[in-house]
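The authors assume throughout that readers already know how a fold can be written as discrete tokens. For illustration, here is how one protein appears when written out as sequence plus structure tokens.
>
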Amino acid sequence: MPTNRGLHAFAVALAAATVCLIVAGGLVTSTESGLSVPDWPTTYGQNPFTFPISKWVGGIRYEHSHRLIASTVGALTIVLAVWLARREPRPWVRRLGYLAVGAVVAQGVLGGLTVLFLLPTAISVAHACLAQTFFCLVVTLAVVTSPWWRRASPVGASPAGRVAAITAGLIFVQLLVGAVMRHTKAGLAIPDFPLAFGRLVPVLSTFPVAIHFAHRVLALAVAGAVAVCVVRSWRSGRPDLRRTALAVAGLVLLQIALGALTVLSRRDVVLTTAHVATGALLFGGTLVLALTSRRLPAASVPRETAGAGVLRGPLSEEPAWK
């Protein structure tokens, strides 16, 4: 099957644009600018695309920029879905494109409702979690449209892949808890680090303290799961999995450091936003590890799959995974 390099490059560009959107959203939350533009879908009653730059002041700069980037990402997603519909022979990949369009439209609606209902926690958290879900959809599209994926052969689920999938699920739970913490303003509910009120385990007397401490505990669980990913990937004998696992390990170390600095700096805007963005990259990295572990690169026979052959069953069917 021929590879459409332009399509793959466009999917990668969309993934990069989505990271920019997550950064913009993080800035809105970190600067508490969510209601700086109080109407939606207009901006102070004007067309958002013609709203004068001279009026981009204070929090309006962050919220309005976020909306414009979101609109750009939405348009790019529609273009990608149409491109997939016309050029992509695999039905399941085309369906992923349609799902991405549905997700980005729902994300826009949730963003609007967040403003119109004055930042309710439930909608704000749903908005944050759907952003991460959408990001993983476009990362998946970037991976499965790549030349590497087309050349590689499907294999059975490996230990590295299973651990990576579990880790990705755990990271999503952590992102959910982090979103609840941010939108309930519990980021400084425990003001010290690495201890919590001078103790290993604080008295969980209030919801903000409990959700903040849960976020810290889950961070340790994620770090442990990533360490297992590195060990499993190293044992696989595959250089590609080793490189991806090491990159994910670097991201989790950076994420923990940013989390600590966010507390110690009293929620510095740049550090807090970087913490949000790195969480998304960590989530995407584990997803890439889980996906690539299911393909065997050409002329590569790792120890844990040697002699096992390709996977039997639906995943080994040519139309589904080629």
